[in-house]
Amino acid sequence: MTSIDDFLLREIDAGSFPSAVYAIGSSRGIEHENALGHAVAVPLRIPATLDTIYDCASLTKPLITTTLALQLLDVDAIRPLLTHTSGLRAWMPLYLHRDYVDAIREHGPEYEPGTRVVYSDLNYVLLWSMLPDYLTLARERILAPLGIESDAMFLPPASLRPRIAATEWGQRYEARMAENPEVAVLRDGLIWGEVHDGNSFFAGGTAGNAGLFATARAVFRLAQSWSNAELLPRTLVDEATRNQTAGLNESRGLGWLISPTGMYGHTGFTGTSVWTDPERDRIMVLLTNRVHPCAAPNSMQKIRGEFHRLALTS
């Protein structure tokens, strides 16, 4: 799609991100895809391809953790976690504490549960703690049934590093978030083939909030499984992708952000996103490594919006 390619190349030239891979289609499959830029820009240059594997960051939340939670846990009991209305603060450097769950219980509460939406990694760390042997469950209940184990995984082996898009140099962004310069020295050098998120990294590769590595094709397949209700009953898919927080400050489904037009989707800090428009039967995946080599603020929200506009009108 020339218009999308031209748009993404302009953003690459402007320094918004070094690479982008996209996949656009419907519940029937991918119709348009391409890879642009360099998956690794420093200290060497490796071009992005359709086989490039990206750190999907928070796409892990709806595509993996939410799916497992809806398959295995009591939905009503975990609803405040899935809708981000639990009362927990947005983020904490949990790896500075001995036990993640104890730290959340002691330091996480920030507001009255149910009174507003605060998007929080801590909700998904708690869901992860309720899913024993999370990695095995993800492989056996999601990745294997969808046939994407070679293109979607946690803890990618070192042999796959040449296929993986690099992320940040060190842990500097989280150090600023934590207001603790010492955090930056916990991880030094280029983060490449290891999960970018600190809480997931120090939990062994995932804490339920991040950790999924995947190609754009694999992310599309995961989103397609939601459109086709392959891993969950249709009634549960419909509930999860419908606004559950009416009257509050943000529209949230179960694991998903809900747009004013009825689309549902999610974004990831590393520069990733997946959005589905049920009415038009469109699935749109955009993976970038916008935090490489440094995680500086940029206009990713605006970029994603323009990508979706082009994907829906081209």
Main β-sheet: number of strands, strand sense, barrel status? 7 strands, antiparallel
The side-by-side strand order for the widest beta sheet comes to: 3-2-1-10-9-8-7
Structural class of the helices, strands and pairings? alpha+beta
Radius of gyration in whole Å, from Cα?
Answer: 18 Å
- In whole angstroms, the N-to-C terminal distance is 7 Å
Order of helices and strands: HEEEEHHHHHEHHEHHEEEEH
Instruction: Using the coordinates above, name the CATH class.
Output: Alpha Beta
**Per CATH, what is the topology?**
Beta-lactamase
Find the CATH superfamily. DD-peptidase/beta-lactamase superfamily
The average pLDDT value, as a whole number, equals 96
What portion of residues is helical? Answer: 25-40%
What is the count of β-strands? 10
Domain count: 1
Tertiary shape? globular
Q: How many distinct helices?
A: 11
CATH architecture: 3-Layer(aba) Sandwich
Strand content: 15-25%
What descriptors fit this protein?
314 residues; alpha+beta; Beta-lactamase; three-stranded antiparallel β-sheet; globular
What does this protein look like?
35% of the residues lie in helices and 15% in strands. The chain is of the alpha+beta class and 314 residues long. The chain has a single domain (2-313), classed as DD-peptidase/beta-lactamase superfamily (Beta-lactamase). A seven-stranded antiparallel β-sheet has the order 3-2-1-10-9-8-7, sandwiched between helices. A three-stranded antiparallel β-sheet has the order 4-6-5.
